[in-house]
Design a protein that fits this description.
It is a single chain. The protein is α+β, with helices and mostly antiparallel strands. It has a domain at about 30-120. It is built from 5 helices and 3 strands. A 3-stranded mixed beta sheet has the order 1-3-2. A hairpin with a 2-residue loop joins strand 2 (about 65-75) and strand 3. Helix 1 crosses helix 4. The protein is globular. Zinc ion (ZN) binds near residues 109, 113 and 119.
Length: about 150
């Protein structure tokens, strides 16, 4: 599932990803790679809080995922060096979005955040901030344009 999501992004951007291995625990250990992990609800909330990732909406209702880039100043310019994706293993599907679809949509959304793509208002895009009924697991035109612009 992670591989399929990365392939969708690779297809949209021409960027290639390299598998660097596995790790245990939560993201935040290596800012030179994209770290992808799952956590149970309590761990997830604690990680959000301890790492300053808690937003007002996630504090209220809980999040199903978090994603964002890691950046550093390299030769004087702020450069994205890696990213973090954390999925809440206790997210629950709904009548209109089964759990497998929800996992994959959330992974794709958070990976796009890890590449520094932000939210949009268009419900046909993966980067809409909440899960939309019937959304196919694919990048929308705006998602593709945004990713292509960020990575080219
Ligand atoms: Zn988001």
């Amino acid at each position: 599932m992670v591989g399929r999501c990365l392939q969708r992004i690779a297809d949209a951007t021409g960027v290639s990803f390299q598998f660097k291995g596995t790790f245990t625990g939560l993201p935040g250990k290596d800012s030179s790679i994209i770290e992808i992990a799952w956590a149970f609800d309590d761990e997830f909330k604690n990680w959000e809080r301890d790492n300053g990732k808690l937003s007002s909406s996630s504090a209220e209702s809980g999040s199903i995922g978090w994603g964002g880039p890691e950046a550093a100043f390299i030769d004087g310019s702020l450069t994205i060096t890696g990213g973090m994706v954390l999925l809440n293993a206790e997210m629950e599907g709904s009548p209109h979005t089964d759990i497998a679809t929800l996992h994959e949509l959330t992974m794709l959304h958070e990976l796009c955040h890890a590449l520094n793509l932000g939210h949009v208002d268009d419900k046909r895009e993966v980067m809409y901030p909440s899960v939309v009924e019937g959304l196919p697991i694919q990048l929308g035109n705006g998602d593709r344009t945004g990713l292509f612009t960020l990575t080219s």
